[in-house]
Structure formats: structure tokens, C-alpha cells
Amino acid sequence: MNAPLRSTAENTVAGLIAHGIDTLYCLPGVQNDHLFNALYDAQDRIRIVHTRHEQGAAYMALGHAMASGRPSAFCVVPGPGVLNTTAALSTAYALNVPVLALTGQIPQRHIGRGYGLLHELPDQLGVLRSLTKWAARIPDAQSARGLVDEAFRQLQGGRPRPVALECAIDVWGRRAPAVPAPAPAAVRAANVDEAVLERAVDCLLAARRPLILLGGGAQDAGASVQAIAEALQAPVSSARMGRGVLDVRHALCITPPVAHRMWPQVDLVLAIGTRMQTQYMVWGMDSGIRVVRVEVDPEEIERHGPPEVALQGRAEEVLPQLLERLRARLAGAVREAPAELAGHRRAVEEQVATLGPQLELLRAIRRVLPEDGIFVEDMTQVGYTARFAFPVWRPRTYLCTGYQGTLGWGYATALGAKVARPEAAVVSVCGDGGFMFNVQELATAAQHGIGVVSLVFDDGAFGNVRRLQQAQFPGRNIADSLANPDFVQLARSFGISAWRADGAAQLEDMLGQALAAGRPALIHVPVGDMPDPWRFLNMPRLRG
Predict the structure, then answer these.
(1) Exposure of 328 by Cβ count < 10 A (0-12 exposed, 13-18 middle, 19+ buried)?
(2) Which residues contact 239 (CB under 8 A, 6 or more apart)?
(3) What CATH code would you report for 194-338?
(4) Distance (Å, rounded) from C-alpha 85 to C-alpha 58?
(5) pTM here?
(6) Residue 184: per-residue pLDDT
(7) What is the DSSP string of 426-445?
(8) pLDDT of the residue at 187
(9) What does the alpha-carbon distance between residue 155 and residue 343 come to, in Å, rounded to a whole number?
(10) Residue 1 has pLDDT above 70, yes or no
(11) Contacts of 193 (CB under 8 A, 6+ apart)
């Protein structure tokens, strides 16, 4: 009996579903018509969220993966469609987020010929390869499922980063006998060498002033992080991507400004899933600091120089092995937290209190946002302050752009987070400048009923640009002022509930109402100039 014929598109969709993709963020177009025809037949298994701009689709996939910790996918047309997604792809690359970019192509026989066909790029696959961990072209129906499987193998193995697949317009519809899906390859857990683990424990126990630093690679290792911190009585500080791994209310959890004050006395760093770029290149390192690194990427482990001990593997696999040996060596002995910790905390709290306007607004949000609510930070004065002053209690509830600093990502990313976690309250914190980058996705929120509450803090300017120009070139501000719409009326024109909040008290009340309603909403918050938060982010060199 002959095997049934399936198209390239059908094999691709079957692969997406088999790998757990239940939502595809997309914009359709002629180069992908056969793919969308296949998606039509799979609507009971994969939700289609079509957006108003390609960048919105890519940011939503990014938010989906960040909030869920699972791979996500978006689909766009080639050429300008792909180029419109590159800011989101570069952000996913920076944040180590598993996102699959799926795109069409011009006819297969014309790729690379320079004929000037619709949406043709000189080297689209080269563009994708420059922004992803792995990218490939689907050449025929027989290869489609295998390439989808390989894409997900790349997404889930080693260091998570985006991947991409492209397929020519005339290949999507081609048919071939269905290929049985292979059994999923077993994922091998990291098994660290016993001698290396023992050397790491030796270092940890010898330290008098250890500090644990967390990055995004620690997001799924919270229980082990807390147990190791308590066993050592070592303070724990998180970079932006590591926020929430350890509840900020824990006695050993400290903010980066507190860690910076302690830095001159630190004699060992246990670095878990973090680049340590700030410590190596800004705070300063010297021979008095021993480093034990837990890192899945062998290139990252030695990027700034070899650590004392390298434990290669995912934090959630390596740390339980480290903890087991640490507990055995401690044998119930009780260590004490640094006596000066409370004093450092008080000193930083007094300094941070100068950021009163931002702190009042953040406290209003925190009082209303549930414990598992998701806070999405865009590039705005309130967002910058949130990096060290907003209390984060759970993993994957504080989303930011990391080192990429992608202005305008916030609202669309928050929509994807809400689709991934429909039970969680999701708040997007944007400035008036950044919000307008993806304002069109208000239509997507309304059409698909995505209940994100967008907070737009409006100072009538690119506020950070204005502040920097004023500081460096007094009286010579240029290209910083903005002409804004009436944000309330704009949102209401899309059918979205909207209010204006004058001050923190009104914001707290209106945000509570909006979250309780569970529908898309916008709160416009006019603000003036705010105190500079950057001295708590760009802190001076102390060592080395």
C-alpha cells in the first residue's frame, strides 16, 4: 500500500505540532499561501494569532517563549517581512530564548540570481544565520519534517537561541509520500565529573565572602539556588535576566547596587547562567576573586578568561549534583551570613529613595500585580528603575531586553507572554516613545482578546535621550521631543478600555480594576522629568 502524499507545508505543520507548538504568531502573504492552507486544517491543534506588523509577530513569539520557558514560533513573508523581525531575533539571541522563525522565499530556482523578484533579498538565509543559532532552507517535501525536527533539536540542545527555516513559494505545495516521524532523541542530562564537583565544593567552602550571581540560565534552578545559598549563607544577586530565581523577600537576596557595595570584600563568585560581563568589564576583577561557573555554553565559560572551576551544563541539572556534595561536606554545619549585609542594604535603600517618583509608581504596580503576575519592562525611566527596585518574587515574571536594549519591544512581547500564560496577569510598562513602536498591536489585542494591561508613562519625549543631552550639552537638545496622540482615545478607538491616571494612587486603583476585568486595557500616566536612575545601573569600577 502506497504511503499517502503530503505537501511540504503539511509536513512542516505536523512537525510544529509534534514539538508542542500550540500557537503560531504570523502575518500571511503570497509566498506562504500553501503553508496557511495547511494551517487551516490544523486549527484545532495550533492557534493562529495574526498581527498587524511582522515585528509584532516576532516579539509575541519572543514573549511567549520567555514567559513559558518553552520554544515558540512565528511565520512571516520573505524579504521585508523577515527584515521587520530582525530586532526581535537579535533580542532573542541576546536573551538565549528558543524562538523558531519560519519564512517563505522566492521561487527556488531563482534564489540568489538577482532578478529583482517580489521580496527578494541578496542572501536572506545569510541574514537569518547572522541572527540565529542555526538556519536552513527546506528543499522539498521529503526533507521538511526532518528539518523541523533538527530545528527543535537545536532549540532544545545546548545554549538556547533562535533558529530559522525558510521555504520557497513553489516548494510549500509540492507533495511526496509521508515520512514516518522519528522517535524523539533522548536528551542527555549533564553528568559533571566527580573530581570537578569536588574542586568546586573545595572553593565554595574555603571562601570567607562568597557571592552568588544569577543570569537567565538559572531561571529553572530556583530551588537548588536557594538551597546552595542557605547552605553557604551566601548573598545572591541577579542580573536582569535572573530576577525572580530567588524571591526578593529571601534574607539572602540582594540587589545589584548592594552587591556592588560588597564587591571589594568578595573572594569567590559562584556564577550561574550569567555572562558576568558587568563584573569583568565594569566592576573589575582581580586575583583575589575565585570564580566557579555553571554554564551550558563552553565558549561562554572562558570568554573573559578561565574560571577556577567550570561546571558545564544546564543549571537545573548541574546544581543538584553540586548541592548533594556540598551538603555531604558540610555535614550539618551552620554558617553565618555576612554581618555587614544589613548595613549595606540600609545604605542602598537611603540612596535609592532619591528616585521617589519612579518608586511610588512601582510600588503602586507591585501592590496590585499578583505574585505570579508578569512585569514586562520597556526602555523607560520607570523600567530602568524597576531593574533593581521592583520586587520580583517568581521566575519568568520579569521580562526585559537584556543587553540588546530593544526600545519598543514591550507591548508586543507582553501580548505573547499573556497568550502563553493566560492565567497570569501581564503588565507592559512603556514610555510614550517606545509604546508607539508597536501601537498597531492594540488591534491584535482587541481582535484576539489578549488581556494585557499597558501602562504608558508619557513625558512627551524620548526621556533618556533628553536627559543625556541636557547633562552633556546643556541647552542643545535636539530630536528628543514627541508629538503624541490622546492615548486614552486612541486605545478606545480600538475597542480597548482606557483611562488616564494622574499619580500613583490613581494608577493603583485603575490597574486593579483593569486586571480584575481581564480584558485588554491601557492606562495613560502623564509624568514629568524624573531623577536619574543610571548611577544605580552603571556603577563604578572597584577592583582590578
Answers:
(1) exposed
(2) 213, 214, 215, 216, 256, 274, 275, 278
(3) 3.40.50.1220
(4) 6
(5) 0.96
(6) 60
(7) EEEEEEHHHHTTSGGGHHHH
(8) 57
(9) 44
(10) no
(11) none
Q: Rounded to 5 degrees, what angle do the CA atoms 205, 222, 89 make?
A: 120
Distance separating alpha carbons of residues 503 and 357, to the nearest angstrom: 9
Cell 545604605 identifies what position? 347
Report how far residue 312's alpha carbon sits from residue 296's, in angstroms, rounded to the nearest whole number.
5
CATH topology of domain 346-536: Rossmann fold (3.40.50)
Q: Name the 3-class secondary structure at 393.
A: coil
Assign 3 a pLDDT band (cuts: 50, 70, 90).
confident
The DSSP letter of residue 203 is H
Which DSSP string do the residues of 252-288 spell out, in sequence order? TEE-HHHHHHHGGG--EEEEES---HHIIIII---TT
Q: What is the mean pLDDT of residues 257-285?
A: 97
Q: Give CATH superfamily name and number for 5-177.
A: Thiamin diphosphate (ThDP)-binding fold, Pyr/PP domains (3.40.50.970)
Residue 99 to residue 93: CA distance in whole angstroms: 9
What pLDDT shows up at residue 79?
Answer: 98
Q: Domain residues of the chain, as ranges?
A: 5-177, 194-338, 346-536
Task: Give the angle subtended at the CA of 303 by the CAs of 218 and 286, to the nearest 5°.
Answer: 90
Cell matching residue 214? 544569577
Tell me phi and psi for residue 499, to 5 degrees.
Answer: -140, 165
Distances (CA, A) of 11 to 71, 76, 115, 216: 19, 18, 30, 33
Q: How confident is the model at residue 315 (pLDDT cuts 50, 70, 90)?
A: very high
Residue identified by cell 523541523 is: 148
Residues forming beta bridges with residue 377, ordered by sequence position: 429
- Joined grid coordinates for residue 69: 520557558
Of 201, 26, 185, nearest to 102 by C-alpha is: 26
* C-alpha span between 93 and 425 (Å, rounded): 26
Give the C-alpha separation, 43 to 23, whole Å: 10
- In the block, cell 502506497 appears at 2
Q: Where do we find the cell 494591561?
A: 453
Average pLDDT over residues 93-104: 98
Mean pLDDT of the chain: 96
pLDDT the model gives residue 66: 98
Which DSSP symbol is given to 4?
A: P
Q: What is the mean pLDDT of residues 113-129?
A: 97
Residue 126 corresponds to which amino acid?
G
Phi then psi dihedrals of residue 306, to 5 deg? -70, 135
Question: H helices then E strands: how many in the chain?
Answer: 22, 20
Spell out the long-range contacts of 467-472 with Cβ–Cβ below 8 A and sequence spacing 24 or more.
467/529, 467/532
Distance of CA 281 to the CA centre of its chain: 23
Dist. CA 275–CA 285, nearest whole Å: 14
Q: What percent of the chain has pLDDT above 90?
A: 93
